[in-house]
Write a structure and sequence with these properties.
alpha/beta, binds ligand PBG, two-stranded antiparallel ribbon, eight-stranded parallel barrel, 12 strands, TIM Barrel, chloroplast
Amino acid sequence: VKPKAGVPEGTPVVPPQDLPSRPRRNRRSETFRSAMRESFVSPSNFILPIFVHEDSDKNVPISSMPGVFRLAYGKKVVDAVAEARSLGINQVVIFPKTPEHLKTSCGKEAFNNNGLSQRTIRLLKDSFPDLEVYTDVALDPYNTDGHDGIVRDDGVILNDETVEFLCRQAVSQAEAGADVVSPSDMMDGRVAAIRRALDREGHTHVSIMSYTAKYASAYYGPFRDALASAPKPGQAHRIIPPNKKTYQMDPANYREALRECRTDEAEGADIMMVKPGMPYLDVIRLLKDNSTLPIAVYQVSGEYALLKAAAERGWVNEKDAVLEALMCFRRAGADLILTYYGVEAAKWMAGDALLRTRN
Ligand code: PBG
């Protein structure tokens, strides 16, 4: 065997290995790699979460989510959505910041037909009739306790009573023009009850995206900052649980996600979601392989904050790390991706597409 040209001095001279398979052959050029790629991600997969407020007419930065703002109700929200649409994102999910004086212990502002959420839905549907508007169905932005359900004095989160309010909330959002209502509360039986309530009121065309496998995660912190919606300590006579572990799932559990999946499918969900995203890719795959429904994943506020913080320090290449995470959601089986990186990622992807056509 002769030494090969171009190899550094000292490279061992060896005969070719006798290999039946050399996977590297299919990776040797960008043409091959892109021709044989198994997963694709596009802005059409994205659902952009938007925070809305009306404390002022300015967009307010959220300190634990650099680059994300509470958008001022009105022109500022419309402008932000117009920008997203210009980049190919045509789905948004609305999260309203309720003024403290409108919060009550049972959170009935959730189904005020003239509430911030309902007005934002109307504003966006009037401005962009073909935009798909998703809403969040849960009581935490509206009640003084910061829980997704109604809290009894002894600290129990009431299930069936909460579901009644969630139904009213979903109907009120549908009446305002919502295309998809998304229960994020993890109460039992809420998908079936919401489906019945919507149908009874003539909203058979409104879809339900259920937060099917929503875990009691530490990654929701920045979101709760954004809406001032974290569980609050109780007064003397009321116990307010400091976490959501009696309704959100235990991060240790996998098979339980299948139980939630079967229930939501039987109850009439149109889309099932896994949340958070990156630590739960196995759960995305589980649902994808056990259901015929589309699967969504929520890359949550804490995931965004982690990526931003490392990127700001120069510890990871932000664009590469983010596009990799989004691609991995698709590979794991997610059809839809809720991501605060939507607009930035869409810009990066548009830039890459331009580069490809030029080369
Ligand atoms: C409300 C809700 C939460 C998130 C989405 N809907 C917070 C929570 O459950 O405490 C979190 C989203 C994020 O962290 O980006 N039920």
